[in-house]
């Protein structure tokens, strides 16, 4: 399957729109126009095209976990009991229903998966590991690393590597 950028080119205005939306997803088309140097209607059309192509997946609030009582971030390495498609599917289903799981990634190396979780406290982490992960038929081993300090937590994607097309090259 071709990547989106292979089928949809981005010019400098598109990249400026993406950068502005990453900084503030609630911008109106008029505010966006003022930031990128286009009319509001042009920004609206371009924003819609970026959404339709799946480049802009959605808009959401950036919540402060600590303000909501979620003060413990954990990276959990999971090794599967057996390596086959059915077991991987069972584990994926488990993770989809883990309330505290924010991300889950299949890995190369010692662990099969890395699950990022955020929990209110260590007691909750212990319950998730001992009552949900370890008893599950797909799981053989779980190792968790509690985050002591977050040095960088950036949700914005780096766009500087993308070479914009010139106007009219779409």
TrEMBL record:
InterPro entries (alphabetical): ArsR-like_HTH (IPR011991), AsnC-type_HTH_dom (IPR000485), Dimeric_a/b-barrel (IPR011008), Tscrpt_reg_AsnC-like (IPR019888), Tscrpt_reg_AsnC/Lrp_C (IPR019887), WH-like_DNA-bd_sf (IPR036388), WH_DNA-bd_sf (IPR036390)
GO molecular function: sequence-specific DNA binding
GO cellular component assignments: cytosol
The organism's place on the tree of life at top rank: Bacteria
CDD domains according to UniProt: HTH_ARSR (cd00090)
Domain HTH asnC-type span(s) in chain numbering: 10-71
SUPFAM superfamilies linked: Dimeric alpha+beta barrel, Winged helix' DNA-binding domain
GO biological process: regulation of DNA-templated transcription; response to amino acid
Keywords, in A-Z order: DNA-binding, Transcription, Transcription regulation
Protein name per the record: Transcriptional regulator
Taxonomic source organism: Microvirga aerophila
């Amino acid at each position: 399957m071709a990547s989106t950028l292979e089928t949809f080119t981005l010019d400098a205005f598109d990249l400026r729109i993406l950068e502005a939306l990453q900084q503030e997803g609630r911008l109106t088309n008029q505010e966006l126009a003022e930031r990128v140097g286009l009319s509001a209607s042009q920004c609206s059309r371009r924003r819609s095209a970026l959404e339709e192509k799946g480049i802009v997946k959605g808009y959401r609030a950036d919540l402060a976990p600590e303000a909501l009582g979620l003060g413990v971030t954990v990276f959990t390495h999971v090794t599967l009991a057996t390596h086959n498609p059915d077991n991987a599917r069972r584990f994926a289903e488990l993770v989809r229903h883990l309330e505290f799981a924010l991300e889950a990634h299949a890995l190369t190396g010692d662990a099969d998966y890395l699950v990022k979780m955020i929990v209110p406290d260590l007691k909750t982490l212990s319950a998730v590991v001992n009552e949900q992960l370890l008893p599950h038929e797909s799981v053989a081993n779980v190792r968790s690393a509690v985050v002591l300090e977050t040095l960088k937590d950036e949700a914005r994607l780096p766009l500087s590597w993308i070479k914009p097309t010139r106007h009219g090259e779409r």
